[in-house]
Each structure stands twice: as C-alpha cells, then as structure tokens.
Write a structure and sequence with these properties.
Layout (H helix, E strand, L loop, with lengths): L19 E2 L6 H6 L6 E3 L4 E2 L12 H10 L5 E3 L6 H4 L4 H11 L14 H14 L5 H19 L15
Parallel strand pairs: 1-3, 2-4
Helix pairs in contact: 4-5
C-alpha cells in the first residue's frame, strides 16, 4: 500500500504535515508484490518533487500513469485518506476528490471527518463536476464497473447470501 512509498519521511504523514520529498523512492518491492496479483493498490499522499512539484501523488496524473506503467495488472487504484489532517490543511475535500478522480483513482477514501459531512461534500462535488463536465462521467462509470467486477469475483469466495452483490450491466 502507499505506492510509491514514504521513503525518507520521518514524521506522521497523516497528521503532522503533507510529506514532501525530492525523489520517488525505490519501488522494486512493489514490482515484486504485484506478482501476487493484488486487488487494490493504495496511493500515497506525498509530494514527490521530481514528479509533480506541489501536488500529492494521489492527485497527480503523472503519478497514476507511472503507477500503471510500473505495476501492470488488473487492480483498483485506491486513494490514501483524503480527509487526513495533513492533506486537508492544503486541499479542501471537494477539490481533493476531483483531483484524485481526474488523476485516475478508482476508489476515493474519506476515513475521518475533520469537517461536517465530509462524505456528503465529496459526493456532491463529484455530482456537480460531472454535470459541469470537469470530471468525465465515463471515467466514473469505468471505475464503478471495475469495482462491481471485483465484488462479483469476491462473491464466489463467500457462501450464498453473505456477500451482497449489486446487479451489473455488461
């Protein structure tokens, strides 16, 4: 998790401040781990200056493209917590979800609630962005289909009825 890593970060990156590092850390262990065919890869909320100055990896199109090039496979890209204290100090929740979605993240995590109704703010930001065409609806649809395919694959591991499945077109 946390691709491409927190190498060199010596403080709590969830609370203290947004981590910044000049270079992307060594990723060979991620390349080895991808052989296990994980279902998800989580991004890190670190700014890697050599990649995208001032933009956390989770929001970086260059970063997500790098992840896909280096770790080829069929997995969902999941964000690190978009409501971490360190991240929201620099990025509003509504902006974070739009940046992450436009970068290519499939699943957006909002794990804490530093602001009232963070999840509702995120949901309405995405709905409005689709209406305004600042987020491509096809990208959301593609992520939803990929999530539903994973749920369908996982349902085969659970007894009937213990893993609820939504209907899926195509």
């Amino acid at each position: 998790k946390h691709f491409p890593g927190y190498g060199g970060v010596t403080f709590n990156p969830e609370q203290d401040r947004l981590p910044r590092t000049p270079r992307i850390p060594e990723i060979s262990y991620f390349q080895k781990a991808i052989e296990a065919r994980p279902e998800f890869i989580m991004t890190s909320n670190v700014v890697y200056s050599e990649l995208d100055e001032g933009i956390p990896f989770t929001f970086s199109r260059k970063g997500i493209r790098l992840l896909k090039q280096k770790l080829r496979g069929d997995y969902l890209i999941i964000s690190d917590d978009l409501t971490s204290m360190a991240l929201i100090a620099d990025f509003a929740i509504a902006k974070s979800v739009l940046l992450a979605k436009n970068a290519g993240v499939d699943i957006l995590l909002l794990c804490h609630e530093p602001a009232p109704q963070a999840q509702q703010v995120a949901f309405h930001a995405l709905v409005d962005a689709v209406k305004e065409r600042s987020v491509n609806e096809r990208n959301i649809d593609t992520s939803v289909r990929r999530i539903l395919r994973l749920k369908q694959r996982l349902s085969s591991f659970y007894p009937e009825g213990s893993f609820r499945m939504f209907a899926m077109d195509n």
